[in-house]
Each structure stands twice: as structure tokens, then as C-alpha cells.
Amino acid sequence: MKIRLRGRLSKPAAVEGCLDPEALKSDTGTQSPIQLARKLKRALAGADACLSKKFRANEDVNQLVKARAWVVDQLVLCAWENLIPAGDNISLVAIGGFGRGELHPHSDVDLLILLAESPPSDGLRGAIEAFVTLLWDAGFYLGHSVRTVEACVSEADKDIATATSLMESRLLSGSTEMMQEMLDATAADQVWSAAEFFDAKFEEQLRRHEQYHDTG
What's the CA gap between 138 and 208, in Å, rounded? Predict the structure, then answer.
């Protein structure tokens, strides 16, 4: 089963007035990581306040969660493009709900940093660490992993939730070839039989219901 490669989100109408991407990009090249983190934090807070106002005005919630995902796309990419050297050896991937293009307030921003090889060079390792630190400093609820395609396959084989989140992934920046390789290698029919996949998803759903009732 070949999974279609998905990329950056189109700008939704619901985000109008909440974030100006061009203003966001201005002067970023001359700012330190600390200054950039502060700029992204202000932009995120402003966008969240704007979207919250639209929510109170009874705008469509489905459109607002898509709008917030688009906002976070812009902010994360701003950090990435300023800190990570361009090349075919690394890609930035949105996974889970963020990968689907839906992001509620206070939801985790789930990212996969996909590497051509592991371990990365010292310089690239330092850039990745700086990127992750900047996003935490900017106020994101961040969930992230750094893996090769082979490591993605291994994790998808062990955990149905990981397999599902990779199926829902989107390429934000980097190599389309490496991304497609990951999607093809972690497709359900590659790491799970149809029966195993169904049973595992059913068990996962039961656990979620039990957790909900236990905390309700």
C-alpha cells in the first residue's frame, strides 16, 4: 500500500488576521535563538488570542483547529529554516493530530526529525538540539523524536500508535524521497498483517475508553 505524501497546509480562511507570515520572517536572520524564541512566543500567544476570540464568536471549531495547525506550521518552519542547515540528509515531519492538520489549544505539537543516517554529525546534532530548545522556550507543548527510516520501521512494528501517527504524517521541510521511503516502509501492510492491525487498533480504542471513564 503506497501512502500519498502530504506537505504543508494551505492557509485557511479562519486564520485571517491572526498571523502575518511575512512580518514573522522579517529580521529573523539577524536575531539570536533567544530573540527568535521570544518573537515566536509572542506570535503564538497573539494567534491563540485571536483564534480564541473567533471561537467565542461562534466560528466553526473544525476550521479553527485547522487554522491553529497552519499557524504552528509557520512558526515551527521559521525556527527550522533559521537553525537547521538545508540538505537532503534531514527532514522535518508533522505527525499525529498535527500531521492531520488539526491542532487544539494546548495540544502537543508532534514532530519527527527524519535523518538519512544515525548518528548525525556533531554540527547537525547541535543544530537539532538548538531547534528543539528554541521551540520549548517559545512555549510549544512539544513531542519530538529523531529517527532514521529504519528506526521508524522498528518503532512502528512495536507500537500501533506510532504506526498510525506515521501514516498521518506530513512533510514540512526536507527530502520528499526520504519521506516517501518512510511512508512506504511503515505502511500498515508492511509492518502489520490486516488482522493484527485491526486487533491492535481495537485494543487501543478500548484502552482509550477505559482511560476516559476512569478519569470522568
Answer: 30
Please report, for the chain, how many H helices and E strands are present, in that order: 10, 4
Averages of pLDDT over runs of 10 residues in the chain (216 residues) are 80 95 81 92 96 96 96 96 90 94 93 94 95 96 94 86 86 94 82 49 50 48
In single-letter form, the type of residue at position 76 comes to V
Q: Provide the pLDDT for residue 204.
A: 47
Query: 74-92: string of b/e by CB count within 10 Å (b at 16+)?
Result: bbbbbbbebbbeeeebbbb
Where do runs of H (alpha helix) occur along 159-193? 160-167, 176-186, 188-191
Report CA Rg, the chain.
Answer: 18
Residue 22's pLDDT is 87
From the number of C-beta atoms within 10 Å of its C-beta (0-12, 13-18, 19+), residue 8 rates as middle
Find the distance separating the first CA and the last CA of the chain, reported in whole Å: 39
Burial class (CB in 10 A: 0-12, 13-18, 19+), 63: middle
| pTM for the structure as a whole | 0.85
Cβ pair 144, 112 in contact under 8 A: yes
Kindly tell me the sign of the dihedral angle through the C-alpha atoms of 17, 29, 77, 180: positive
Whether the Cβ atoms of residue 178 and residue 114 lie closer than 8 Å to each other: yes
Q: Cell numbers 487554522 label which residue? A: 67
